[in-house]
Amino acid sequence: MAPAALENTKETIAMRVVDALRDDIITMGLKPGDVISESDIAGRYGVSRQPVREAFIRLAQQGLLLIRPKRATVVKKISPVGVRQSRFIRESIEVEIIRRVAGQPSDDAADVLVKLIADQEAASDAGDSRRFHTLDELFHRTLARLAGVEYAWQLIDDHKMQLDRVRYLTLGVSSTQRAIAEHKQIVEAVAKADPTAAETAMRAHLARAELLLNQTISDFPDYFE
Amino acid sequence: MAPAALENTKETIAMRVVDALRDDIITMGLKPGDVISESDIAGRYGVSRQPVREAFIRLAQQGLLLIRPKRATVVKKISPVGVRQSRFIRESIEVEIIRRVAGQPSDDAADVLVKLIADQEAASDAGDSRRFHTLDELFHRTLARLAGVEYAWQLIDDHKMQLDRVRYLTLGVSSTQRAIAEHKQIVEAVAKADPTAAETAMRAHLARAELLLNQTISDFPDYFE
DNA sequence: AATGCCGATCTTGTATGGAAGTGCGCCGGC
DNA sequence: GCCGGCGCACTTCCATACAAGATCGGCATT
Asked: Does the beta carbon of B145 lie under 8 angstroms from any beta carbon of chain A?
């Protein structure tokens, strides 16, 4: 593998290592169950063990690594229970968000959302599922912003990486078409200022993740606990 | 101040430092805005800088410290916005929880809750607000367990420390009597298997925190951003 | 007196060596 | 052949030294 020079330009080496490792983990360059060591990664990036160690600590707190003191450090396997509970948390919050947005609708809210969906269709037609994923995330974050709780979304983000790993495994599988259709239903309910319908649409939208999870577990059993 | 010998017996020194510092911060031994340094704390506990540094990193990720690279490390001031959004998250989740519990009631569920409330009344009568706080937390965690999402509560816990700092400042102020009365309403709704009433009672219960927050901000303005 | 430079002295960041614990495989005894 | 003890190799953990940026005050210059 290339030395991967840590191109990005954060302030400290430790932060760059964090970003590099997190990216490697989410994109399955480092697979769940892989054993890594400080000196291993340090050598790979051409830095000393110290910043690597600090990166390990950060990633362990984010639930991506498991540090077994004096033994080893492994890329954490994905916990189905954890993923479901993360989904529970996300659903709880997003339902509350969509209720608020639909409850006190502003005219331009719907406009912004419609435009986002148009972009998503463009990405979908172009077959760029990576970009679609980004836009999908932006869609949900925008809803949080419209509800006045953008900061809350940031908190979700921390616990969303488990979901992201699953999502990455299903990149080509998931139907962007259907996701877009569901997004449209949500926006429609918002435009009609119908919180109940919005909630229903949102729950249906998020429920699809459960199917993907089960599919992924049987496709990659080694990656799960 | 005493050297505080780090009595507890976690595996590594770094973990002990984390526990000691977190306790100091939540109990306001280290006040928001206080400037600390690695060598300062290291000397205070008689350890080297290294484990202290790692403790700083962990606490910074938990939002209790702010590391300003090459400058200093300060005890983070409490962010009113952050607290409100933490409350929003908690309310979203707890509402979802209480709906589930009230929606699929088991007979012994109410029993367990009633018993917990009895303990709370005992603690309240004894004027032991510290113990009451513990029991209050147990009450909510028990609800999460009954809903089958105990793990989710653990995630809340991480983002609840901001609230805990506020709560500590209001230890003698908050009315345990009223909290108990509200708990009773919640349990009553659960016993009747009335999710809507349970949700209403829960929202009312959590809403009181807003008043406490505002009160605390005017009492200790220096502790907030 | 006001201002800008400059260095002493803080801080955190990084590197490196060794301590302590764990696991695994070899080797000897049975 | 089987089993137990022992030591080597590996890990993370801690201590220490040094590097580099940031801050603040004194001091010279204007």
From this structure: no
Contacts of A159 in chain B (CB under 8 A): 155
Which chain A residues in 87-146 sit with Cβ < 7 A of strand C?
A: none
The pTM assigned to this predicted structure is 0.87
Question: Within 7 Å: CB of B11 and strand C?
Answer: no
- Tens digits of residue pLDDT in A161-213: 888 898 888 876 667 888 999 999 999 999 999 999 999 999 999 988 888 89
3 state SS for chain A: CCCCCCCCCCCCHHHHHHHHHHHHHHCCCCCCCCEECHHHHHHHHCCCHHHHHHHHHHHHHCCCEEEECCCEEEECCECHHHHHHHHHHHHHHHHHHHHHHHHCCCHHHHHHHHHHHHHHHHHHHCCCHHHHHHHHHHHHHHHHHHCCCHHHHHHHHHCCHHHHHHHHHCCCCCCHHHHHHHHHHHHHHHHCCCHHHHHHHHHHHHHHHHHHHHHHHHHCHHHEC
Q: What is the pLDDT of residues B176-222, one digit of tens each?
A: 888 999 999 999 999 999 999 999 999 999 888 888 899 999 999 99
